[in-house]
Design a protein that fits this description.
Elements (H helix, E strand, L loop, with lengths): L13 E2 L5 E2 L11 H9 L4 H7 L8 H17 L4 H15 L1 H25 L7 H45 L4 H19 L2 H15 L8 H23 L16 H27 L3 H20 L13 H9 L7 E6 L8 E5 L5 E5 L6 E5 L4 E4 L5 H17 L1
Antiparallel strand pairs: 1-2, 3-4, 5-6, 6-7
Helix pairs in contact: 3-4, 3-5, 6-10, 7-9, 8-9
C-alpha cells in the first residue's frame, strides 16, 4: 500500500488488552481494527490481493481499493497517529493506487450508463409519446450530449494550456538561478551519463529483471532479497560510470514538491475560457447567418484579389486562403521577410573535422551540441560565429582518451 510500516510498530514498551507487555518495535493492532486486519489476512490469496501484490492496481475491484485505503487510515488513527500524519499516509496510498481517480472514472461511467438507460426508456415509452415525439426527443438528447462533449473538450484544452504555461514559467524562473555556462555543463554531463547507461548491457538487463520481478505474482517476502540485490548493483554501475566520466559523483537533485495552482482554481479558469470561446463562436455564427448574398459576394471578390496578388509573386495556391489582410500582406512582401537569410557557416572543432552548422540572421547566444559524425561535444557561439570544445573540466579529456582506446582496439 506504500504506507510507513514503522507507524504500525510500538515505539516503546506497551501493555496489551490482556495486560501483557509488548516490547518496542513489535507490530501492534488496535482493538477497533482487529476485524479489518483479519479480513486483510483472509483475502491475501484472493484475485484482487494478488493484483495488489503485483502492483497491478487498475485490475483490482474498486471496492477492495476503498476498503484498504479507508481501513489503514482508520487503523493509523486508532494507533494514535495525528490527523496530519494519517492524512499524509492516506495521500501516499491514494496516489499509488489511483484511488480518487478511479472513483471519479467509475462515477463518470455511471452517469454515461444512466444517459443510455434514459434513452432506452424514452425510446420504448408509450405514455403520451408517439413515434415522431420519440424521434425528435432522442435527437434533442443527442445534440445536448454532443454540445457537452464539445464543451468538455474545450475545457480540457484550456486546462492543459493553463497548467503548461504555469510549469513553463516555473522552469524559466528556475533556470535563472544558474549561469548559462553552468546549465550547459550540467545538461551535457547528464547527456553523457545517460548515454553511457543506455549502452551498458548489464545495467539494461538488470532494469528488465527489476521490472519482471515487480510484476511477479508471488509473496513480497520472496522478492525482497533479489530486489535489494538488483538495486545495489544498479547504484554501483551508476557510480562507476560517473567516476570514470567525471572523476566525481554527480549531485542528485532533490525532488522538491511543486507549488502549483490548486486544480479547482485552474478548472474554474478553464471553464470560464471555454464559456467565453463558445460565446464568441456563437456570436460569429450569428453574424455569419446574418450576412446578405451581397456581403458574401463581396468577401469572395476580396479573397480573389488576395489570391491574384500572391500568385503574381510566385506563390502557387491550391488550397483555401486563411483570413489574410491585403494591406498586411503587401507590407510583408515589401519587407523581404519571405525566407531565412543565412548569416554564415560555423565549423565544429571535433574529431571528424567535417561537422558544420549553418547559422541564420537573427540567431544569438550560445548552444551546446553534439557532432552527428563523431559525437564530440562543442560549445557554439552564434555571436562570435565560432565553436570550441565544451569544457567540462576533465570529462571531455577522459571521453577522448576512451574513444581513442576503443578505436585503437578495433584496429588491433
Amino acid at each position: 500500500m506504500g504506507i510507513d510500516k514503522e507507524l504500525l510498530r510500538a515505539k516503546e514498551k506497551v501493555t496489551d488488552i490482556y495486560g501483557k507487555t509488548v516490547k518496542g518495535g513489535a507490530y501492534i493492532f488496535p482493538k477497533q481494527s482487529v476485524d479489518f486486519c483479519v479480513t486483510v489476512i483472509q483475502k491475501y490469496t484472493s484475485r484482487d490481493f494478488k493484483k495488489l501484490r503485483s502492483a497491478d492496481y487498475d485490475e483490482m475491484a474498486i471496492d477492495e481499493v476503498v476498503f484498504l485505503v479507508r481501513g489503514f487510515y482508520i487503523m493509523l488513527r486508532n494507533l494514535g497517529c495525528s490527523e496530519k500524519i494519517a492524512l499524509e499516509q492516506y495521500k501516499v496510498m491514494e496516489r499509488r493506487m489511483g484511488y480518487k481517480l478511479r472513483l471519479a472514472s467509475v462515477e463518470l461511467e455511471r452517469q454515461l450508463d444512466a444517459i443510455r438507460e434514459l434513452a432506452k426508456e424514452y425510446e420504448h415509452s408509450y405514455i403520451s409519446f408517439n413515434y415522431c415525439d420519440k424521434t425528435y426527443f432522442l435527437r434533442y438528447m443527442a445534440s445536448k450530449v454532443e454540445a457537452t462533449r464539445c464543451f468538455i473538450e474545450s475545457v480540457y484544452g484550456s486546462y492543459t494550456d493553463i497548467r503548461s504555461e504555469e510549469l513553463s514559467d516555473m522552469a524559466l524562473e528556475e533556470s535563472y538561478k544558474e549561469s548559462s555556462q553552468t546549465s550547459i555543463e550540467r545538461i551535457n554531463k547528464e547527456m553523457i551519463f545517460f548515454d553511457a547507461l543506455e549502452h551498458d548491457d548489464e545495467y539494461q538487463k538488470l532494469l528488465r529483471q527489476q521490472e519482471n520481478l515487480i510484476a511477479e505474482d508471488t509473496f513480497i517476502k520472496n522478492k525482497q532479497a533479489r530486489f535489494r540485490k538488483i538495486q545495489v548493483r544498479l547504484a554501483e554501475i551508476r557510480e562507476k560510470h560517473q567516476m570514470e566520466l567525471f572523476g566525481e559523483l554527480l549531485d542528485e537533485e532533490e525532488d522538491a514538491p511543486l507549488t502549483v495552482r490548486h486544480p479547482m482554481d485552474v478548472l474554474k479558469k478553464a471553464v470560464e475560457d471555454a464559456e467565453s470561446w463558445i460565446k464568441d463562436h456563437a456570436e460569429r455564427d450569428e453574424a455569419e447567418a446574418a450576412k446578405t448574398p451581397e456581403d458574401i459576394e463581396q468577401e469572395k471578390a476580396e479573397m480573389e484579389r488576395m489570391r491574384q496578388l500572391l500568385e503574381e509573386r510566385g506563390v502557387n495556391l491550391n488550397f483555401d486562403l486563411p483570413n489574410t489582410d491585403e494591406q498586411e500582406e503587401e507590407i510583408f512582401v515589401q519587407s523581404g521577410n519571405l525566407a531565412w537569410e543565412v548569416k554564415g557557416t560555423i565549423q565544429l572543432s571535433c574529431y571528424c573535422k567535417k561537422g558544420q552548422i549553418t547559422a541564420y540572421k537573427g540567431i544569438k547566444g550560445k548552444c551546446a551540441m553534439k557532432c552527428p559524425g563523431c559525437g564530440y561535444y562543442v560549445l557554439v557561439d552564434y555571436d562570435e560565429m565560432t565553436a570550441k570544445p565544451l569544457e567540462l573540466h576533465g570529462p571531455v579529456r577522459r571521453i577522448e582518451k576512451k574513444k581513442n582506446e576503443q578505436q585503437m582496439a578495433k584496429i588491433i
